[in-house]
Amino acid sequence: MKQPSFLKAKQTIGITCPAGYMLAEKAADCIKTLQKWGFEVMVGKTLGSASSNYFSGTDEERRDELQAMLDDVNIHAIIFGRGGYGMGRIINQLDFKKFKKNPKWLVGFSDITVLHNHLQANNKVCSIHGPMAAAFTLTDGDSRAIDSLHQVLKGKRNTYRCSPSPYNRTGKSTGRLVGGNLTLMVNSIGTAQQINTRNKILFLEEIGEQLYHIDRMFYQLKRSGLLKDLAGLVIGGFTDVKDTERPFGEEVESLIRKIVDEYKYPVCFHFPVSHGKENVALKIGGVYQLSVSNKQTVLKEIADIT
Description:
The chain is built from ten helices and 13 strands. It is of the alpha/beta class. The strands form two sheets. A seven-stranded mixed sheet has the order 6-13-12-7-8-9-10.
């Protein structure tokens, strides 16, 4: 697994929007914070574009801007403006040949899961699941999640802790970390972005889904074999979950735990990765140790393994 170089003062971070539309002013706090950290910022034209529909530009405009930033050796990291939907429309048109020779940190979550998966499945390059530009506005650049991103970009190995859940399965394991948004993980099955989860610690989060949708997607992961040989399972925030008029009859935690009950790896719930303010930066492809006990859950990045 190849790891991009960590950032130094005066190096440049690009901001682009490869998916949904985002007002330019919503990136103001992000730009200000990145500059405060000592970085230069290059803003793409897709941020606050003149688009009149859902996307931050045409497929070609979004693709070409992202391609240019991937290829530009003077850009050392890319933080995406927002997710939403759109990466799946352009991912197979991107060329990663230059990027693979000179990789840089790509930062985002939600729809950006497609890109993270592509790097894992095809390029073996680490990336960062973490706050995007819009998140800096929600927190005014001051939160655990924003600080954790800063630490990862500088090269610090982070350790995260969360309180126990009665649905947890205790245990300890080590493996490379993969994952992201549940819907996008499921949508990647059978595509060039499907990842190998064997001996990996898989983390998942979701927003705005019906309970039966979540149940269906987890069963699809199971039927595809992607839950069978994990080193561990980390369940983050499942926010704004909806129920049907006739109740589904189970909560998120219980339905997930039942689906993976036959396996032996450690499982934890309520980890601080989500569409909310609690969305700490995780190094996808990095090696982590997961420890789930009756007192707390600890996810700790450790030295790389060959």
